[in-house]
Amino acid sequence: MKKKQIIIAAAIAALLIITTLSVGYRMIYGKAFAGNDVVEIYIDTDDNADSLQTKIFPHLRPLAIKGWKLLDNIDGKQKIRTGYYRLTSTSSTIKAYKTVRHGMQTPVKLVMNNIRTNEQLAGRIAKQIMLDSTEIIKALNDTAICSSYGYAPNTIIAMFIPNTYEVYWDMNVEKLLKRMDKEHKAFWNQSRLAKAEEIGLSQLEVSILASIVEEETAVNDEKPTVAGLYINRLKRGIPLQADPTVKFAVGDFTLKRILHKHLETDSPYNTYKVAGLPPGPIRMPSIIGLNSVLNYQKHDYIYMCAKEDFSGRHNFATNLAQHNANARRYQNALNRRGIK
Q1: Whole-angstrom Cα distance, residue 210 to residue 318?
Q2: What DSSP designation does 234 have?
Q3: Segment 207-231, tens digit of pLDDT
């Protein structure tokens, strides 16, 4: 009898051990997430192991929660890693845990385009990664930091080439600027540098002119024509008289009609009063804009005026009489629409 009891006890013990090991295995190596959706977790500098549990536990299966707590106890809830983590629904508990706790981040897309000012740039970046906009604008307005990259606060925007970049969500300002400097240098390859030299413009001057071209027209196939017009003016020593620079000087990009009082604005960006290019870009020029300057259309135009059909295109002229006729048609169209 005793022998039979021993055998039964041993069998029960073995079963308990097997069950415990099985449960333990499923806690650690079983499927972590309850649903079939991808789970996205953002961890910032204010998070700790407890707040991380609050973020991820609602997505975990009950056994996985126990497994996560067990792993946390083994690790001693050591310091967690900031970042963005994209976890697949098929991940095991230990795989999900290691991904997050060991900082195995998923890159995010940083999109930069259609930006006019440093403040707008800082705000756009801050919406996409962990950085705070005040921290970004502080760096962009720091003379020493800008100078280390060969720029000033009013020109640093030229270092940013509009594109979509893969970055880590928790990158700091230093890494951001270094990455943008690297991308800028990659854009300015030997071919583009040679074209700029042939035109007689520096990289920064190409960016400044491209920013004006892009504010003048949203029609891509017209941009090389507009670029050629301004290059003609620069070569002949004629003031650019670009309306977008007046808007920038006034500080109002919504102006639909440039009046005489606007032309009297005292600013180095007012190209009606100051000859040559303004001291900095009036927006972040796109790759299309930059290439439009580097591959500008050669012609004899020195005047342009928006078309009276409000198509966004322009009438171009080689002489003042022709330009005045174009301008009268446009002014009459504005009057008919009551645009002041």
Answers
A1: 21
A2: H
A3: 999 999 999 999 999 999 999 999 9
Locate tokens 């507009």: which residue?
226
SS3 content of the chain, % helix, strand, coil (to 5): 55, 10, 35
Q: How far apart are CA 321 and CA 301, in angstroms?
A: 13
- Specify whether the CB–CB gap between 167 and 107 falls below 8 A: yes
* Residue from 31, 211, 179, 50 nearest 115 by CA: 211
What sign has the CA pseudo-torsion 17, 99, 70, 32?
A: negative
Q: What is the pTM of this model?
A: 0.86
Most distant CA pair in the chain: distance in Å? 122
DSSP type of residue 60: B
Query: Which residues does 84 contact at the CB level (< 8 Å), separation at least 6?
Result: 40, 41, 42, 43, 105, 106, 108, 168, 169, 170
Q: Which residues of the chain have pLDDT under 70?
A: 1-25, 76-78, 340
Contact 205, 296 (CB under 8 A): no
The per-residue pLDDT for 334 is 84
Q: What percent of the chain has pLDDT over 90?
A: 66
What's the rounded Cα separation, in Å, for the pair 272 and 133?
34
